[in-house]
Amino acid sequence: MNPIETLFSPSSIAVFGASERSSVGGLVYRNLLDGGFDGEVIPINPGHESIHGTPCFSTLEESGKRVDLAIIATPARTVSGIFEQLKEAGVHAATVLSAGFSETGSRGASLEDDLRYAASTHGIRFLGPNCLGFMRPGISLNATFSRNHAKPGGLALLSQSGAIATAILDWAEPRGIGFSAVVSVGDAADIGFGDLLDHLALDEETTAILVYVEGVRNARSFVTGLRAAARLKPVIVIKAGRQAAGSRAAVSHTGAIVGEDDVFESVLHRAGAVRVSSIDELFAAARILATGLRSSGNRLAIVTNAGGAGVMAADRAADLKVELPAPSTATLEALDAQLPPNWSRGNPLDVLGDADPDRFAVAVQACLGDPAYDGVLVMLAPVATADPDRVAERVLETIPEKGNKPVLACWLGDRQVAAGRERLSAAGIPCFETPEDSIEAYSYLAGYQRHQQLLTQVPEPRDTQHPADVEGAELIIDGVLAEGRKVLSELESKALLRAFNIPIVPAFPASDSEEALAVAQTIGFPVAMKINSPDITHKSDVRGVHLNIQRAGQVRACFNDLMERIGAANPEARIDGVVLEAMHLPAHGRELHVGVVRDPAFGPVVSFGAGGVAVEILRDRSVSLPPLNSYLARRMIEGTRISGMLQAFRDKPSIDFQALETTLIRVADMACELPRLVELDINPLVADEHGAIALDARIVVDQQPGIARPYGHLAIHPYPRQWVRVKQLPDGTEITLRPIRPEDAAIEQDFVRRLSPQSKYFRFMQAIRELTPVMLVRFTQIDYDREMALIACVPEADTEIEVGVARYVGSPDRESCEFALVVADDWQSRGIGTKLMRQLIEIAKENRFRWMHGEVLRANRPMQNLVGKLGFRLKAHAEDQEILVASLPLDA
Fold it and tell me: What secondary structure does DSSP assign to 307-333, as a single string?
């Protein structure tokens, strides 16, 4: 059992600092005793002979007890010494409730650094410090010093703040809301959100996960854990400090307009999570998502017998961008034939105040069959002629058993509608009290579906059809940094864009007026002239630009004007003359802004929005984490106000959206491939019906120490195309070895179905017929940062079939990884397993794992022979004689 599992299911607990007082140690000890925990609880506190009638010990060794988990509530300076006791006793999991670790420790740094060092040295994983503790209500385990107690249930709560955790528990208790786990993360010096999300993703007691975040300490771990959990169950996040703008000193427009909350929002979207802004919304989202209802889109039909309630719902839908399309022509004709002549003939579908149960049923059935809608909300006001219970019954009869559209209900009122509301809820139809709550609930379903689509996108890190000149771009950056500069000139910035195949208007330097004239004549009029200075970032801010120069006689005057005016206003700035470029004046062009900024927590972020000189005033932008593909790029474009102006309107044709998407993808490629890229501005990027072209660009670079692995500067690991290999078998058959993708779910399921019972047993060590939906998600939607699945494929007709798969999953400490391998029965003994394993080992080495382990059944002789030839050592399993453990050192 790994330490995280031990934390959630210990058999015995030692409490360091236990007492009979109302101290932290005293309260947690009392909660453990009073909560009904079945395991043994051992108090450790020098100078106490007994606590509440139980013998107390000075040290863990003195107790002579076997302990799974240590809970520590002693002064900060004593904790590292307690870790020594845990090492001697073989304890590998701890919770540190103590605070005060910012003080200087024995190693010259903080006490928290001492704590991490001791834990790493002794092989201990710990929660905290400065945390409330945790609860596991299903086993009556309350290891907190809170006076709150949680009921068992399906929600898991992770909170960075102990105070917020207690407030949420206090809010939930009278409402009868139960929890599978409650964890206060505290300072997260070791075990953080990522570790806990990993565990809860596979926890059978947990149906949904609630997360309260103030700040993220380990961005890659947080994002990978969030993505792993959100693939399997709903994750709802509330973050404090939404209005706090980033404090970075921005050089570019991008840095000025992108705040930290924008980035966090983008992280949650790409991770498949749902964000809320209050505790009420936290539980409302959990309530609707935990039902298992899902919506395939954002288009809602509202059926109501009260026009006012319909208007209130429509207003809230507009606030939350929930679409209310009009009924289709077929639906209108069908309802015209069955409803009174004066029904609303729109959405909301007002079936009038005298509607009987059958009229409701007719309208609901029509909406469920209308392809214009992704979901239906039924609202009833208890007017005198209404029968709320009978309407609920008829609505339930109308809903098909295996329908693919969610149905929500809103029975307004209290006493008169209680029976109907109870009938709907008992049948699994969420029933709300107000129109606004109903719409918000549907918005969570729609948002969850959108974010799940984003989650399954696995873009590649670069455009493989038009490969970038990464080496050339790196050489430009080398030269700039070697000169002690960080801001690239316009010429250098455009050269970097050109290296990534981003269309530019070429710029040509001129150091004096005569050279400027010669350049202008060569380019051809009209031209634009811009000041060329490494010390002036925004040329328009200092009036350092002359546009639309029409003839040769204007060139010298414009040059002299720039030199005199800019020199006088900026005497400290180094001025290297000007740059000239052809005027780009498309009749239907729209000015846009594309940029990259480096977030302090999550690394590079791509920004898109309205461009021009007022970019910082308009602040019309959407952001996304790289890498991007066409789907993600289109979603970025749609997330801005200017997107409507990019379509055809009045006399303007639509822009070339494919060209714009390609530009966004290639900018994201730059962020992926150039770790030293800090900020990038393309402003304006002019898009029209013929394409998109960068008129001006400015780039900031800097050294980025501490990036140990490829793409280590990114929060989301891109699809590792570098590991796609074509191999040839001894008989000449060509096979492709490649990392698995989410869209491989069908061939993965088919592969497992075709395995013989023996091959399935050798692989899974149990009898299975096919992969469960949860297993299929886990096997195909992987995080390439800490796990890998290589599949071997061969072409068949217009598709391909999977003939083998090898995978590893990294341990939480990233020291080791566990492998598994299986080859289709009719493809065995042809060298596929060896090729898969050799490449898997190569990838594990590049990702700096030190060991690779795997379990092999004694009966599986072919696998034993294969791993033996690859250098693995085999030894008996400590607890099961039918299993051998294969181990291979990767750092030898």
Answer: HHHHHHHHHHHHHTT-B-PPPPHHHHH
Distance CA 285, CA 270 (A): 18
Helix, strand or coil for residue 660? helix
Beta carbons of 793 and 802 less than 8 angstroms apart:
yes
- d(CA 28, CA 37) in angstroms, rounded, equals 12
Buried b (16+ CB within 10 A) or exposed e, 637-661: bebbebbeebeeeeebeebbbebbb
What digits encode the pLDDT tens for the residues 181-218?
Answer: 999 999 999 999 999 998 999 899 999 999 999 888 88
Minimal CA–CA distance to 484: which of 619, 574, 557? 574
Residue 859: predicted pLDDT: 93
Which residue, among 88, 19, 21, has the nearest Cα to 49 in the 3D structure?
Answer: 19
Give residue for tokens 């202008």: 520
| 614 CB neighbour count, 10 Å cutoff | 11
Tokens of 709: 């692995």
Task: Report the pLDDT averaged over residues 669-685.
Answer: 94
Q: With both helix axes pointing from N to C terminus, report the angle between 329-336 and 357-368 in degrees, rounded to the nearest 10.
A: 160
Sheet holding 349-350, edge to edge: 349-350, 300-304, 375-380, 407-411, 431-432
Distance CA 830, CA 810 (A): 28
User: Is residue 246 scored above 70 in pLDDT?
Assistant: no
| Residues whose CB is less than 8 angstroms from the CB of residue 703 and which lie 6 or more positions away in sequence, other chains included | 481, 676
Strand residues in 504-660 grouped as ranges (E): 508-510, 527-531, 545-549, 578-582, 590-599, 603-610, 621-624
Give the pLDDT confidence score for residue 245 in this predicted structure.
44
- Residue 309 CA to residue 319 CA, distance in Å, equals 16
HSE toward the beta carbon, residue 504, CA cutoff 13 A: 24
Alpha carbon distance 177, 155 (integer Å): 8
Residue with tokens 């491989």: 744
The pLDDT confidence band at residue 495, using thresholds 50, 70 and 90, is very high
Q: Tell me, what's the pLDDT at 34?
A: 92
- pLDDT for the residue 26: 94
Quote the distance between the C-alpha of residue 508 and its chain's center. Answer: 43
For 487, left (φ over 0), alpha (ψ -120 to 50), or beta? beta
Measured in Å, how far apart are the chain's first and last C-alpha atoms? 27
**Could you tell me where the beta strands, DSSP code E, fall in 367-517?**
375-380, 407-411, 431-432, 508-510
**At residue 162, does pLDDT exceed 70?**
yes
| pLDDT tens digits for range 614-623 | 666 667 789 9
Whether residue 742 is preceded by a cis peptide bond, meaning omega within 30 degrees of 0, is: no
Residue 6: Cβ within 10 Å count: 17
Question: Does residue 59 contact residue 43 with C-beta atoms inside 8 Å?
Answer: no
Contact 300, 376 (CB under 8 A): yes
Burial class (CB in 10 A: 0-12, 13-18, 19+), 667: buried
| Residue 324 CB coordination number (10 Å) | 20
pTM: 0.86
